[in-house]
């Protein structure tokens, strides 16, 4: 088989790239290791920046998001039982959208099916070849048969545990990493959210987050140990641990119920640089990971895809390689700012250290955030998403 761009991975990065390329007349094939149902069953991100919304609109898949997504003008931060509100709208004129990654993935899959662009699900043993030549290839097995895809470019959109990044010669890549000694235990339940806005909670027992997917579906997270066994967390234990971390009003509004999903996510900061190796371009979690605090992971995947899709369109339509040559540098500039923000939110809101000095610094950071318009504006600018 031959295509212009071989895309590895049908997560948000791969699917969005495929859709934007297709819109611009560039052929692409997506190879995905899992089945479509499996990809759709992963509950992940929930908050979408304005620039990500714009990109989904450009890709022609924004209609359901605008109809069903929840526009949020601000966010609340609760520190030791006292809630503070930060208004994005007042501070930046912008808002964010609460719309689950599962729904975005579904919209992108439906959009791809509607235009008939090919996706190979359950593609096994995906392997990249000749990335430094002008005829790279991807081999894989599908339905037990060996296959080969010859292409002009490969987009490695296969997440943190994918095959693209490890295909690069070790000496060509630099990895920057910070692993946090904690995880997020998340629960999804068909119960109304405690508040109309998200509440990030800093509490001596540990961080908590009250989020949502719809007015009748809540998403809650609590900080847990990275070694935690999910089997040790029946629903009741989760609710019993969440409640004392909340303020009185939120606790009063909390409706508990059976979980429909429960999972533990480790917290990690990671950046691989550069993001281009010959004709291989990494995008999304394949190149970088942020701890979830601040909801930047999916949004960063989208901004990489914006730079990469424009660069590929320039290559084919304008015969210019300038965008491809600048891709890594441009994407990494935005990546590092989101890394900084996610690290800052993580370090400010979690119980990470037992050193009272660190606790006082967290309280000082937060007090400054609530009292200084400059600090609040800087926070809001980052939360709603920096411009591309
Ligand atoms: P992915 O979504 O990881 O997609 C990569 C795809 O590549 C997958 O479908 C995978 O099956 C496929 N793949 C992997 N290896 C291969 C291979 N060898 N061959 C073919 N295909 C392959 N972000 C937030 O903003 N908020 C959150 O609450 C949040 N929660 C998260 C919870 C978890 C458990 C994880 C792992 C991530 C979470 N994130 C969250 C991050 C966010 O979901 C990611 O940043 C986003 O999914 C990145 O999209 P992506 O397309 O780059 O990668
Ligand atoms: C959600 C996840 C986040 O990491 C975050 O900062 C906000 C919301 C969520 O899953 O709803």
Structural notes for this entry:
The structure is a single chain. This protein has 388 residues and is α+β, with helices and mostly antiparallel strands. It contains twelve helices and 20 strands. The chain has helices at 12-23, 36-41, 50-58, 63-68, 88-92, 101-115, 235-242, 248-253, 297-318, 322-349, 356-371, 373-384, and strands spanning 5-8, 28-31, 47-48, 70-72, 74-79, 82-87, 96-98, 119-120, 124-129, 137-142, 145-150, 153-156, 174-189, 199-202, 208-214, 217-225, 259-273, 276-277, 280-282, 288-289. Strands 6-5-14-15-16-13-17-20 form an eight-stranded mixed sheet, with helices on both faces. Strands 8-2-1-12-19-18 form a six-stranded mixed sheet. A three-stranded antiparallel sheet has the order 3-7-4. Helix 1 runs parallel beside helix 6 (101-115), helix 1 (12-23) packs parallel to helix 9 (297-318) and helix 11 (356-371) packs across helix 12. The longest helix has 28 residues, at 322-349. The two termini are 35 Å apart. 44% of the residues are buried. The model has no long low-confidence stretch (mean pLDDT 97). The chain binds flavin-adenine dinucleotide and 3,4-dihydroxybenzoic acid.
The side-by-side strand order for the widest beta sheet comes to 6-5-14-15-16-13-17-20
Largest sheet: 8 strands, mixed
Number of strands: 20
**DSSP helix count?**
12
Shape: globular
Mean pLDDT: 97
Overall structural class, as computed from helix and strand content, comes to alpha+beta
Overall helicity: 25-40%
How would you describe the oligomerization state of the chains in this entry? single chain
What is the terminal-to-terminal distance?
35 Å
Bound molecules: flavin-adenine dinucleotide, 3,4-dihydroxybenzoic acid
Query: Regions with pLDDT < 50 over 5+ consecutive residues?
Result: none
Q: What portion of residues belong to β-strands?
A: 25-35%
Whole-angstrom Rg: 21 Å
């Amino acid at each position: 088989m031959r295509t212009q761009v071989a895309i590895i991975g049908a997560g948000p990065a791969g699917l969005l790239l495929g859709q934007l390329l297709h819109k611009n007349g560039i052929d692409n094939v997506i190879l995905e290791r899992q089945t479509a149902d499996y990809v759709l069953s992963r509950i992940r991100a929930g908050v979408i920046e304005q620039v990500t919304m714009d990109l989904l609109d450009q890709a022609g898949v924004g209609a359901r998001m605008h109809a069903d997504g929840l526009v949020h003008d601000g966010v609340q931060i609760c520190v030791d039982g006292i809630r503070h509100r930060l208004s994005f709208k007042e501070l930046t004129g912008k808002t964010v959208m609460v719309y689950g990654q599962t729904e975005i993935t579904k919209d992108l899959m439906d959009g791809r099916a509607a235009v008939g662009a090919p996706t190979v699900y359950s593609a096994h043993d995906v392997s990249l070849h000749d990335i430094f030549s002008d005829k790279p290839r991807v081999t894989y097995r599908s339905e037990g048969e060996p296959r080969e895809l010859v292409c002009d470019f490969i987009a490695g959109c296969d997440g943190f545990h994918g095959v693209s990044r490890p295909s690069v010669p070790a000496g060509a890549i630099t990895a920057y990493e910070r692993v946090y000694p904690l995880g997020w235990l998340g629960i999804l339940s068909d119960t109304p959210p405690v508040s109309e806005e998200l509440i990030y909670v800093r509490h001596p027992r540990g961080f908590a987050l009250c989020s949502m997917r719809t007015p009748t579906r809540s998403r809650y997270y609590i900080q847990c140990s990275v070694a935690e066994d999910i089997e040790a967390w029946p629903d009741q234990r989760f609710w019993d641990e969440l409640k004392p971390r909340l303020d009185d009003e939120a606790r009063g509004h909390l409706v508990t119920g059976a979980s429909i999903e429960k999972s533990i996510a480790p917290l990690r900061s990671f950046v691989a640089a550069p993001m281009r190796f010959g004709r291989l371009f990494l995008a999304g979690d394949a190149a970088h990971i942020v701890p979830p605090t601040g909801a930047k992971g999916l949004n960063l995947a989208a901004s990489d895809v914006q730079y990469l899709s424009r660069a590929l369109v320039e290559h084919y339509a304008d015969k210019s390689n300038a965008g491809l040559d600048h891709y890594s540098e441009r994407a990494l500039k935005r990546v590092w700012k989101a890394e900084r923000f996610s690290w800052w939110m993580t370090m400010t809101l979690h119980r990470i250290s037992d050193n009272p000095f660190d606790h006082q610094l967290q309280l000082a950071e937060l007090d400054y955030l609530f009292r200084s318009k400059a600090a609040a504006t800087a926070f809001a600018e980052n939360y709603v998403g920096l411009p591309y």
